[in-house]
Design goal:
With 175 residues, the chain is mainly alpha-helical. It has 5 helices and 2 strands, in the order αβαααβα.
């Protein structure tokens, strides 16, 4: 009878240990997009980049209006000035348009590079936070939410990770 009890106890412990180990293999998930857009540092970076882009486009719009006004004047003077002078003025105007397009492209590329830099900086600070959280909670796997079709919301650790990130990183240097 004691021998049977020992066997039962051993089987029970093996079953219990294997069951608890299988729960540790459950992957948790984090919504990286939400963290990038809603964390304190991410939000400040987004707002700063948006403001820079808006100011740049506003400046470009004013330059575009100036070029359009020059074009109207040139069209009005077409019959008054010589054809060589007209061609020269058109060439200058086209040069200004090309310059404006280059300036617009430079602005967009600069903001895109700064956005990418800010994203990388945020992810660089986020990785150690996730690793510490994983070690602390004995989690073996964390995946991005966009890679998941359907999951229990209890496995979402985004809020905890974002809270830790907000404590560690207040803002990102965009320059």
């Amino acid at each position: 009878m004691i021998n049977l009890f020992k066997k039962f106890l051993i089987i029970f412990f093996i079953f219990f240990i294997s069951n608890s180990a299988s729960f540790a293999d459950v992957p948790y998930f984090v919504d990286f997009k939400l963290i990038l857009n809603k964390s304190d540092a991410g939000k400040k970076a987004q707002d700063g980049l948006k403001q820079k882009l808006e100011n740049g486009f506003k400046s470009l719009k004013q330059k575009e209006k100036t070029i359009q006004d020059e074009e109207k004047k040139l069209i009005e003077q077409k019959k008054i000035i010589s054809s060589e002078e007209y061609k020269s003025q058109v060439k200058k105007l086209r040069g200004k348009v090309v310059s404006l397009q280059k300036e617009r492209n430079t602005l967009v590329n600069t903001v895109a590079k700064q956005r990418s830099k800010a994203r990388n900086e945020l992810l660089k600070n986020l990785n150690p936070i996730i690793k510490d959280y994983m070690n602390e909670k004995k989690i073996r796997m964390v995946v991005d939410k966009k890679s998941i079709l359907l999951a229990d919301e209890n496995l979402n650790i985004t809020k905890e990770i974002m809270g830790r990130l907000n404590k560690k990183l207040k803002s990102i240097n965009l320059n």
